[in-house]
Amino acid sequence: MELLIVVGVIVLLVLIAGIYLWATYNSLVSLNVRVDEAWSDITVQLKRRADLIPNIIEAVKGYAAHEKQVFENVTQARAETVSAGSPAEASAAENHMQQALKSIFAVAEAYPQLQANQNFLQLQAELVDTEDKIQASRRFYNGGVRDLNTKIKQFPNTLFVRGLGFHEREFFEVDEPAAIAEPPRVQF
């Protein structure tokens, strides 16, 4: 009878451990998928902004063709954004892009005809909308990364989750948070 009780307790403990592992694994898979989805949304928004940049450059170029260095900086920042493959690379590219956009809008401020151009105003409105979406996507992504990293670091998960192939993810951070606190806006 005592042997039966010991075997029953062992079976119960194994069953509880199995259920815990199953629930933890599924939870980590869900968090990992959410982070991947959020990163995908960020890349879509960054690509959308990158697609707007050539149109903005052309609009400003029509009025300030001699500002060659500004256009080259924006083009280079755009290329960095498009080629970024990780949150760290995207963060660095984001810093360059914000500085480049500020420069091009500073140039635009000097040309009243450009400021009244409906095409430029529409592009600017689309850019502001896209910047808002990038910020929202960034918050969603970082929230997902926070949840995943917390789950991975919690005890007893830390004992076995790395063996299951899960690892901590990078946050999408920028060197100068103030630079992206608000999307680039120009007061005409």
Explain this structure to me?
- This protein is mainly alpha-helical.
- It is built from 5 helices and no strands.
- The dominant shape is rod-shaped
Fraction of helical residues = over 70%
Look at the structure and give the mean pLDDT. Answer: 86
User: Kindly, what is the distance between the CA atoms of the first and last residues, rounded to a whole number of angstroms?
Assistant: 88 Å
Q: Which structural category fits the helices and strands?
A: mainly alpha
Low-confidence segments, given as residue ranges, are: 183-188
Whole-angstrom Rg: 25 Å
Number of helices: 5
Largest sheet: none
Query: H/E series, N to C?
Result: HHHHH
Number of strands: 0
Percent of sequence in beta strands: under 5%
Q: Can you tag this structure with a few keywords?
A:
188 residues, mainly alpha, 5 helices, 0% strand, disordered C terminus
What's the arrangement of secondary structure elements?
Blueprint: H1 2-61, H2 68-83, H3 87-109, H4 112-116, H5 118-153
Helix pairs in contact: 1-2, 1-5, 2-3
In brief, what are we looking at here?
The chain contains five helices and no strands.
